[in-house]
Structure formats: structure tokens, C-alpha cells
Design goal:
By secondary structure, this protein is mainly β. It contains two helices and 34 strands. The C terminus is likely disordered.
Length: 558
């Protein structure tokens, strides 16, 4: 709606008058985004087309736009109450026509004292975290597709104390059902909650940390077990064997290792990292020993070949090979030394060298390690870890698991107000997925075929037949079509289809519209009523009549 008279937003005019932003100046027009960190207190810029990154969407208003009865600016700088009035208020055969407003948010100032990426006002007024401490913050439990998405293995966020204590959250893949989208976290150095309670067979250190999370169970929250890192001082482990340090969680009655896995020791930097299904108070314990030695075996270098594979049933195969396996004295480890293989999203194909040991073992052979793994049907980033049985030598590698080929059916939507011929129309697809439900990556190309119009969007691959469209980070195809003139007809027929390949062998989705002609017979009243009914009944903004269709001559059209 380019600059209606009078202006819908007081004395502010829409600067985008070329038709690229149709509705502007009042509420319930711009889409609201999924909750993501502090996006609901970050406004969408109403002066630019499209969604402002990190904003929660919706329709932003500046109180400086307010006008009096004469249409003049009021100059107010604050208000205490807000009243929402319907710009259009009336009844139809299906009920009242009014906007439906879920909430109003006060925009937060652009102040982030601790540089954790969360605005101070959101921390104090909503999250209850400390804006002066970066470890007291908010982490995402999933990333919306519009912000890049979070396939399995994606780092969702980290929180870290200045001394090196750290929380990291990783995606486990698509989440579903009623769920939280954010997690409030904090890390505190605390004292032993029960000094008289021992860890059986071990000595307790002075390194005690409380890892707080607003979720009590990572599995129930549909994310990977949280990764906790404890940074300890030499005095914390005096009289203990640094190479045997292990974490224990206090459950109120005992020190337990329930839910703890993936232990990784870094004696050189005095760090101990592990995964835990549950937050809580943790202590490091070990057998008697010399304390801080400051020495450790070099990190095992692992190389995946290839670096990325495609999912499937079965999926692609990857080989992981190590460099020379050396101990803390930089001496080669004897052949036959066993290492445990752990991997997420991948199946180990290499035979188990010692079925009597927990997990899958491989042995050092000619001074190196080698293991073969295979992808399943879930895309994401897989982590492969090789660790000696005593935990002294370890290494990790990451493998990208890419989605399979595009698969239908895919819905195609018309985004314009009532379409006219001739004219420029805007289209968008649903997120395009592979056969196993993985959203395709940004940059994947699909072919668009149009009958009754011409695709005007740039060709993403001029060397391929037809018109190629590159998918967005959300796996969505967006494109423009110029509708052919209808001549002296009242309307024209427009067909749009998406194919997985330039050879048009795999149809992803197809739709058709009857487009009213600007020069034809006056069908606007009937068309407008039909469009309004369809909009109310289906809650879609694709106005005009949609119907399924087939493309018997699709190969001969562009």
C-alpha cells in the first residue's frame, strides 16, 4: 500500500513506493518470528523491505509519529498506556473483520554491557540474568530457519567465565511439540555442598562449579547433552593425579556420574570438559598423585576423507585417519593400543577390535589410527572422537552431513495482492526438504517453469537449461514472474512449477491461478469476493483462484 491518503502512520510516509512492500503503517501485517534470544525487543525496521536480522518481526511504531486531531506531530516522548484500534472494523458473513494483536513489546535500547549478544534491558526485565556478567546470559535451544537454522550438531551458543569455565549447547536436530526456545544459564564457583560426603575411592578437589540452566533435562528439551568445561587452578588439584581427574554431580544425596559422558582432559591448559544431561553442582575428583604436572600428550590430529558426505539409506561413507599417535613423552604409542570411537549421526563400519570393552574399539596400526563410518538419514554436523582407554590421548573430527536430493510435494504461494495481467507477481515456496525431512541448504538450486508468464528473477545458473533459483537459508525458493497480457480476455491462466533438476525429471510442486486482466471484462467484484473468502477460510495471502494442474508441455516452456 504505497503511501495512502491520509498516511496510515501519522506523518510518516512509506519510502518504498515501487510495490516491493505492499502493506505498511499499521498492525498485523508483518509476520512475527519465532522467539529467538532477545528478538522480541528488537524491532523490525519499517523503512526497509524485508525482515531486519535478529528482530522478532511484527510492525514497529515510533511514538514520534503520533499526530493530533489536525494531523500535526504531538512531540510526545513517552506514554503510560496504549490503546489499539481497528483501522477497518466491520462485519462480514464470516464474522467481524478486525486485527488480532497478540502482544505489544517495548523496544530495548541498544546496550549490551557484557557483550554477550543479549540486550541489557532484556536480561534485567525478562530473563533475570546479570547484564554485567557474560556467563549469566540466554542461549538458544534452536535457531529459526530465517536465522540460518540449527541442523543436528549446530552450536546453539556458549557462555563463559573469564577464568575459562564454559557452557556450550548443541542442536540435536529438529524439535517438536510444546517447548521452550531459550535457555537461561549461569556459571558459579561454589563451595562443596556436603564436605563430609566422599566420592568412593577418590579424593575430592577444590574445583567445584555450579552450572545453572533453566532446563532441567537436556534430553527432554530435545537438545544434545550440555557441554561443560571446568577450568581449575593448580592449587585446586594439589595431591591428586591430574591425568585421572573426573567430574561428579551432586544429586542431593551422593556424588554421581549419571548422565555424564564424553570426558576430555587438557592438563596443559588445566581444563576438563564433559557432557552432561543435567545441570547442577559438579566437583572434580581423582586418585592420589603429584598434582598439576602441566604436561599432556599432544592432541591427536584426525582427518576426515571426504570432509562432507550425503545422508541416505544407506548414506555416504567417510574415513577418519590420524597422524602419528604419540604419548606425553612424544614417543610413539605401541601398535595394538586400543582407542574408543564415539560418533553422533554416524554408524561405525570398522569391526570392533575388542567386544569385551564398552563401545567400539580400534587399535593403533603402524603408528596411526583409521576408522570408517557411514551416514544415516539425518543431516547436520557429526563429531567423531577417538580416545585412548586411559583418556590420556584423544582427538576429534567433524564431518558435514549434507541433505539428500530435493523431494516433493512442495507448496507454492502467491505473495501479491490480487494479481493482474499484465503485471509482476511474487512467489515463494514452502521449505524444500529431502526424502528424509532435512531442509535443503542455502545455495541448492531448483528449476522454475512458468506457463503464461516469464520468470524475471536472475538465473542462478545460466549454464543450465531453464531458469534456476537458489534456495534461501530456510530452504525456500523465492522468485518473480511477469504475467503475459491477456489480450481481450477477462482473465489469463498462469501455471508455476518447481523441479529438482534442470532436466525436469523430478517435479517438486505445481500450482495455477486465474489472473484477472486489466483490459478484459470487469470480473473484479466477483474475484475480490472470492479472494476474500479464500483468504478468510485458508488464512493464506495467495489471492485469486488456485487449483492443481499438470504440465504436459512443461519441457517446452520457460
Amino acid at each position: 500500500m504505497p503511501n495512502p491518503t491520509p498516511p496510515l502512520a501519522g506523518n510518516i510516509l512509506n519510502p518504498n513506493t515501487d510495490g516491493t512492500e505492499y502493506d505498511w503503517g499499521y498492525g498485523e501485517l508483518s509476520p512475527t518470528q519465532q522467539e529467538y534470544l532477545d528478538n522480541y525487543v528488537r524491532p523490525d525496521n519499517p523503512f526497509t523491505v524485508g525482515l531486519t536480522p535478529r528482530s522478532g518481526g511484527g510492525d514497529a511504531f515510533d511514538i514520534a509519529w503520533a499526530v493530533d486531531d489536525m494531523g500535526q506531530p504531538t512531540g510526545i516522548s513517552r506514554f503510560h498506556f496504549i490503546r489499539l484500534s481497528a483501522f477497518i472494523s466491520g462485519a462480514s458473513g464470516l464474522g467481524y473483520i478486525t486485527p488480532e494483536i497478540d502482544a505489544v513489546a517495548d523496544v530495548a535500547p541498544e546496550v549490551d554491557t557484557d557483550h554477550d549478544g543479549i540486550l541489557d534491558e532484556y536480561e534485567t526485565r525478562w530473563a533475570g540474568t546479570d547484564p554485567a556478567r557474560s556467563e549469566s546470559t540466554v542461549l538458544a535451544l534452536e535457531i529459526p530457519a530465517e536465522e540460518g537454522g540449527s541442523p543436528a550438531g549446530t552450536l546453539l551458543g556458549t557462555a563463559e567465565r573469564p577464568n575459562g569455565d564454559r557452557i556450550a549447547l548443541y542442536s540435536r536436530g529438529p524439535r517438536s511439540g510444546l517447548r521452550a526456545f531459550n535457555c537461561v544459564v549461569d556459571i558459579l564457583a561454589v563451595t562443596d555442598p556436603n564436605p563430609s560426603l566422599s566420592v568412593p575411592g577418590l579424593l575430592k578437589s577444590s574445583a567445584v562449579r555450579e552450572f545453572r540452566m533453566s532446563i532441567s533435562d537436556c534430553e527432554a528439551a530435545q537438545v544434545r547433552d550440555a557441554e561443560f568445561t571446568v577450568a581449575y587452578a593448580p592449587g585446586d588439584i594439589a595431591g591428586l593425579d591430574e591425568t585421572a581427574l573426573a567430574p561428579f554431580r551432586y544429586d542431593g544425596a551422593a556424588w554421581t556420574q549419571e548422565g555424564i559422558s564424553n570426558l576430555s582432559r587438557d592438563p596443559a591448559d588445566n581444563l576438563l570438559t564433559f557432557s552432561s544431561r543435567y545441570p547442577g553442582v559438579f566437583i572434580l575428583a581423582s586418585t592420589p598423585g603429584p598434582g598439576d604436572t602441566g604436561s599432556a600428550a599432544p592432541i591427536l590430529e584426525l582427518t576426515p576423507t571426504p570432509a562432507s558426505i550425503t545422508v541416505g539409506n544407506p548414506g555416504g561413507s567417510v574415513s577418519i585417519t590420524s597422524g602419528p599417535v604419540l604419548d606425553a613423552s612424544l614417543q610413539p604409542v605401541p601398535d595394538g593400543t586400543l582407542f574408543t570411537v564415539t560418533a553422533d549421526l554416524l554408524q561405525v563400519d570398522t569391526p570392533d577390535a575388542d567386544p569385551a570393552q564398552p563401545g567400539i574399539q580400534i587399535a593403533v596400526d603402524q603408528g596411526i589410527l583409521a576408522v570408517t563410518l557411514r551416514a544415516g538419514t539425518q543431516a547436520g554436523t557429526a563429531t567423531v572422537r577417538l580416545a585412548s582407554l586411559d583418556g590420556q590421548i584423544e582427538g576429534t573430527a567433524r564431518v558435514i552431513l549434507r541433505p539428500g536430493p530435493p523431494s516433493g510435494p512442495v507448496e507454492i504461494y502467491l505473495l501479491n495482492p490480487p494479481p493482474r495481467a499484465p503485471g509482476l507477481l511474487y512467489f515463494q515456496s514452502d521449505p524444500i526438504r529431502d526424502l528424509w525431512g532435512n531442509i535443503l541448504e542455502m545455495g541448492i538450486k531448483v528449476t522454475v517453469v512458468v506457463i503464461g508468464g516469464t520468470v524475471t528473477s536472475p538465473d542462478a545458473d545460466p549454464t543450465a537449461p531453464g531458469k534456476q533459483i537458489e534456495l534461501s537459508p530456510a530452504g525456500i525458493a523465492s522468485f518473480q514472474v511477469n504475467v503475459d497480457p491477456a489480450g481481450n480476455k477477462a482473465s489469463s491462466h498462469l501455471t508455476v512449477a518447481l523441479f529438482a533438476d534442470p532436466n525436469l525429471t523430478v517435479l517438486l510442486g505445481e500450482s495455477a491461478w486465474e489472473v484477472d486482466s486489466e483490459d478484459g471484462l470487469p470480473l473484479r467484484s466477483c474475484g475480490a469476493i472470492l479472494a476474500a473468502l479464500l483468504c478468510l477460510l485458508t488464512a493464506r495471502r495467495a489471492l485469486g483462484r488456485r487449483e492443481s494442474c499438470h504440465l504436459p508441455e512443461a519441457r517446452n516452456h520457460e
